[in-house]
Structure formats: C-alpha cells, structure tokens
Amino acid sequence: GDPVGAEAPPGPLGKGFGNPVGFALPGNHAAAKFTPADPTIFDRHIFALPGDGCLQEVVAKECIALAGHNKLDT
C-alpha cells in the first residue's frame, strides 16, 4: 500500500525547522522508552524542506541547536 505520512503546511518563518524537530523529539523519546531493545518499531523518516526565510530566523537556529543537543538522527 501507499506509505502513510503527515505534512505540515507552511506558516510563520522558522516553522520549517520547528516542525520537523517537534516531530522527531517525541518519536525518539518513545522509541527509547518503550522499545529500547528494538527501536525499529518506531521506524520513521522526517524530512525538512525549509525556505531561505526560515534560515534567517533565530528560532531556526535554536531548533537546530536543540536537534544537535538531543542527537536527533531522523
């Protein structure tokens, strides 16, 4: 069948980084908490397509720092 997914429409500048980090944080937390032996049960891929306006916002830099600090790899 077709893959299931979610899409977040564009909005305020910086949201292009905030949304994917917001999706990845709870996913990684759930995988670590509920299936530490087999984290593939929460197998997912998150893609970010931010625009150049997002890159200019301070909130984007904070989201990037949060993702790096939490070692997000999705």
Structure, explained:
There is one protein chain. Helix content is 49%, strand content 0%. The model has no long low-confidence stretch (mean pLDDT 81). With 74 residues, the protein is an all-alpha fold. It has three helices and no strands. The relative contact order is 0.22.
Radius of gyration: 14 Å
What sort of overall outline do the alpha carbons produce when their principal axes are compared?
A: flat
Poorly predicted residue ranges: none
Number of strands: 0
How can the largest sheet be summarized? none
Strand content: under 5%
Q: Considering DSSP H and I runs of 4 or more, what fraction of the residues is helical? A: 40-55%
Structural class: mainly alpha
Note the total helix count.
Answer: 3
Q: Give the SSE string.
A: HHH
Distance between the termini: 23 Å
Mean pLDDT: 81
SSE topology:
Blueprint: H1 15-34, H2 52-55, H3 58-69
Short description:
By secondary structure, this protein is mainly α.
Kindly list the characteristics that best describe this protein:
single chain, 74 residues
